[in-house]
Write a structure and sequence with these properties.
Layout: H1 20-48, H2 59-81, H3 90-98, H4 104-114
Helix pairs in contact: 1-4
Length: about 120
């Protein structure tokens, strides 16, 4: 028996003409950005002594379908943006985009999420 084959589909970027490593790097950055936000919220809740008293959404029935749709949109947008990734102006475009009026936590998450999008080495 050989190694299991990698899943081909949205998560690999194959259907969007993206190299698997490109899609993996992109989603790794999104996960790390999300962790920043989650840790900040956890810290806030610990400071307050409790988590929000809100019903928890159903992972399978509510969250997973939304994540699947978001993944498809993000991969399509990454594929659409790929030609601009090597443009000399790419770092400046992203810097302007992430410095739009956002709260500091969201701004930091956006910076982390987009830090490796540009591949221009000037």
């Amino acid at each position: 028996m050989g190694q299991p084959q990698a899943r081909r589909g949205p998560s690999t970027g194959a259907g969007y003409k993206l190299a698997p490593a490109q899609a993996e790097q992109f989603f790794s950055a999104q996960i790390e950005a999300n962790k920043l936000v989650q840790y900040a919220h956890l810290s806030d809740w610990q400071l307050q002594g409790n988590a929000p008293n809100a019903p928890r959404p159903d992972l399978v029935g509510q969250i997973r379908p939304q994540l699947d749709q978001l993944q498809k949109r993000l991969l399509q947008q990454l594929a659409d943006f790929t030609p601009q990734r090597s443009d000399p102006q790419c770092p400046q475009w992203l810097a302007k985009a992430v410095h739009q009026p956002l709260d500091p936590l969201r701004q930091l998450a956006m910076i982390r999420a987009t830090a490796q999008l540009c591949i221009y080495k000037g």
